[in-house]
Amino acid sequence: MKVLVATQKPFAAVAVEGIKKILEEAGHQVVLLEKYAAQEDLISAAGDADAMIIRSDKVDAGVLAAATNLKIVVRAGAGVDNVDLAAASERKVVVMNTPGQNSNAVAELAIAMMIYMSRGQFTPATGSEIMGKRLGIQAFGNVGRLVGKKAGALGMKVSAIDPFLTPEQIAAGGATPLSSVEELYSSSDFVSIHIPATPQTIRSIGHDLIGKMPKGAVLVNTARKEVIDEEGLMTILEERPDLKYVTDVAPDNYAALKEKFGLRVFATPKKMGAQTAEANINAGLAAARQIVDFFATGNTRFQVNK
Ligand code: 3PG
What we know:
Layout: E1 2-7, H1 13-25, E2 29-34, H2 39-46, E3 51-54, H3 61-66, E4 72-75, H4 85-90, E5 94-97, H5 103-118, E6 134-138, H6 142-153, E7 157-161, H7 167-172, E8 176-177, H8 181-186, E9 190-193, H9 207-211, E10 218-221, H10 230-239, E11 244-247, H11 254-261, E12 265-267, H12 277-297
Parallel strand pairs: 1-2, 1-3, 3-4, 4-5, 6-7, 6-9, 7-8, 9-10, 10-11, 11-12
Helix pairs in contact: 1-12, 5-6
The protein binds 3-phosphoglyceric acid (3PG).
């Protein structure tokens, strides 16, 4: 089978080698499309692919329509908001992710961002420590749980909320379960966001919710920019000069935010949460193995568009 590895933001070379080895040893052919300039490049490369490995690459209806041989897409990572799942299902294309494989890298970045903002983005101004501070984790999945564990080891008081978990499950993961998102925001010096971008969550965090945060609080977003209501964020940062926002996913209004709020806001130039060699290896090789297994045995364990 022809497997297209399409990564606008490439995997580390060592991960690419590993992916190739797994697929070629199983008799598949690998085609690499890295750092492509336009969506048209992806559309034409997908034309004769039987399978695809992607990262945040957009597998939309146009790609799916062009990829007439396509049977499976594996998103090497967690979020599948970049794949048109309905269009894939219509064309009987299996979509999978590789849950948990890049979570540690994202969790480490969330911790780093808290410290970075507490230390005034490493300027010599007097900063503050995260030890003893309250951290609220919004969604206690693979990344959220790891952030909680690491934050607890650093002496933070960790609480969490997750609509899909019972309070007992949250407590078993080492965090104090809270009963509402409002309570999480109003009782946390730091909130770390770990929700996916879905119709229910898009623009769900805005002026009112952020405004509930206590004095001097920091909002940390290593999830998706789409979950933030950017106008609401702008307004509340204007009203509350004590609040800070740090994100791995630059908001569309970042230039304006930066100009107005300076060191109170920070966004990475490119999404880098999962951009470690380890995460690339874990997620990339898992994706390759899932494809091999799918063609060999029909295993659809990590399918997300059932
Ligand atoms: C994910 O959903 O797994 C992360 O956002 C990582 O995305 P990336 O592979 O594009 O870095």
